[in-house]
Write a structure and sequence with these properties.
alpha/beta; globular; two-stranded antiparallel ribbon; about 300 residues
Length: about 300
Amino acid sequence: MRDVTGRLMLLDTASLYFRAYFGVPESIRAPDGTPVNAVRGLLDFIDRLVKDHRPDHLVACMDADWRPAWRVELIPSYKAHRVAVKHTGGPDEEEVPDTLSPQVPVIESVLDAVGIARVGVAGYEADDVIGTFTARATGPVDIVTGDRDLYQLVDDARGVRVLYPVKGVGTLQATDEAALREKYGVDGPGYADLALLRGDPSDGLPGVPGIGEKTAAKLLAEFGDLAGIMAAVDDPKAKLTPSQRRRLDEARPYLAVAPKVVRVAADVPVPDVDTALPRAPRDPAALEELAARWGLGGSLQRLLATLPA
């Protein structure tokens, strides 16, 4: 990975094109009638992000494996309800709307032709790629995602924040440590412990039965982190209710593996890529062909006008 100086923006690309797909009418179509609402919506979103936040570097982080085997081995229910087709020799296929799936290769081709770095690493999710770029960055980092799991990376001291779309892809909530403490009562690292304690049905994480978000936040405020909470379970003098102590004790097998599943990796072998925000298309000829074939129109032209500004 090359040195990254200046402001780095990391896109949780699948999260954003899912939001674009559901936020832009499917009536937006290519000349042959194929829906391109996710493609054009994502381009419009990137254009706005670049205009509003002026990153020096931009990386579209991809899910090379949206359900890594090493996470499933630890918690078999991890994202199990979202599997469309199971494969023994490779990544399972995620359940994706029929008219979105064909748009994903178009998105990838357009990003490549524009020159926006696109990074996915076999065996890892986009979250892990984001975690690794964040860990290695020397300047401020903006993480753009609709996935609250990445709140765990928020770090005021390093200038790491999450830009979270709260309405479609047009309105962003800038989440820093103050925002996390106000809403959840935890800081960035504390959010991972909060998430694994309360569970997350959307990711197939069971959590600790009877320990919801508010109780988890109170336990973390009292005992600091998961290790402190489990030490309190073993301390008869610690201020835990009998039911809390019993539930946490019974959940030890889950709590022993959940941190590795919930916490994003920070040591992914990301390739050596040029992350600098492009000022001109990397492959103008390919981009012209893509624009004509898929009817990318104003969405692409606006982005191309914004990049060199």
